[in-house]
Amino acid sequence: MERQNWWRRGLAVGVVFLMAGCAAIEDATTPEADGKPSASASAGAGGGAAADGSALPGIPTAEQAEEELTGLKVAPHGSMSGYSRAKFPHWASQGENCDTRETVLERDGADVEQDPQCRAVAGKWTSVYDDETFSEAGDLDIDHMVPLANAWRSGARTWTQDKRKEFANDLTHPQLLAVSASSNRSKGDQGPDEWQPPSKTYWCTYSRAWVSVKATYELSVTEAEKDMLTEMLDTCTP
């Protein structure tokens, strides 16, 4: 009887190990039901501007932007004498037949297709200023977060031509983004005290980006500009 019980216990243990081994093999080899990566693996894939503006390069947190804002020089607008857009050469070549405009269109869009000349011939874009969506690249402008004329009035008039070219084609800082042509032209060269994105949900990102560019290039702000930037930064959630 003792030998029989020992044999039964051994058989039971063997069955448990066998079942566990089968489960492990199934877990290792069975694909997900839809054949797609998990949400965590695919998050952020496919390009396009994130809703919070995190696709903009070099954008600071609200806390960092508040600190940078306190350090900006406050001064009235300078003279527009001598200003010309030609003094801010754009759009510069970015290699492989691409210029700055086409590079931003590819970065800010989804499913963007480009021809051999790097022109966007298909894709989808959402203009974060007004929440409009587009499928034609020609309906979009590349906005300078801090407009060229605004930069001129706040310090760029003393820069070299090379530095102004760098500013006008800056892909490293949150200075360039693809938006609807109508919103870009409505904005013109106005500062945040004069024009704000119609989509108020973008105010937080807009103010963070604006402050970052002004701080990076050591440009001044007016009192009214600083007050409005403070108000816009207050819309950022902790």
Topology of this structure?
Elements lengths: L1 H28 L9 H4 L19 H10 L21 E3 L2 E2 H9 L1 E5 L5 E8 L4 E3 L5 E5 L3 H6 L7 H8 L7 E5 H7 L15 H14 L6 H11 L5
Antiparallel strand pairs: 1-2, 3-4, 4-5, 6-7
Helix pairs in contact: 3-8, 3-9, 8-9
Order of strands side by side in the largest beta sheet?
A: 3-4-5
pLDDT under 50 segments (min length 5)?
Answer: 1-54
Query: Strand count, sense and closure of the main sheet?
Result: 3 strands, antiparallel
Q: Span between N and C termini? A: 71 Å
Number-wise, the strands total 7
Overall pLDDT score: 83
Radius of gyration: 27 Å
- Helix and strand sequence: HHHEEHEEEEHHEHHH
Helix content: 40-55%
Strand residues, percent: 5-15%
| Number of discrete helical segments | 9
Query: Structural class, judged by helices and strands?
Result: alpha+beta
